[in-house]
Design a protein that fits this description.
Structural class: mainly beta
Strand content: over 45%
Number of helices: 2
Distance between the termini: 35 Å
Shape: elongated
Largest sheet: 7 strands, antiparallel
Number of strands: 11
Oligomer: single chain
Order of helices and strands: EEEEEEEEEEEHH
Amino acid sequence: PINDYTNTASTYFLWQWRLFNDKIMLTAGEREDKITSDSAVYDRDPAFSNQYYTDLDAFTFNGESDASTTNTNYGIVVKPHHMFDFYYNESTNTVSAGSTQYTIFNETVPDQAGDGWDGGFRTFLMEDKLVLKLNYFENNLVNKISNPLRDGAAVGIGLARETGRTERYLRGLEANAGTV
């Protein structure tokens, strides 16, 4: 059990330049998040090799920490004709900014961060009432935090339950039922 008390203050801006009667449009943006965090660390019972908690109401704060992260976005649209355009965007993204996530052993989990790009073609039909879009995108994520008990992947949940301690304990009880 971890309680993480976090406050985020964000500053952002977006610029857009429209050139040559909107034949070329450039976009640039940036967001900075300043994060203040303090996590509660629970006491573990040394009689059980520090694997179990003594009292869920007994905890201490880890000490306030400050961090910041900056994400950017750049894009261009080229519109050679009033009925179609081409576009390209590039951006960064930090999912859990400031390393404010901790394991149950009070170890800091690295930020989930990534970058991506997308590009494509759009056509505007019926006086812009119908827009058709052909898009391609790629995203990359580093330090993905995965918890098979919480993730939606059926394989992860099944594997966690099949190999987990509780499941093995219950199978052991079932196998030894009726024996002394």
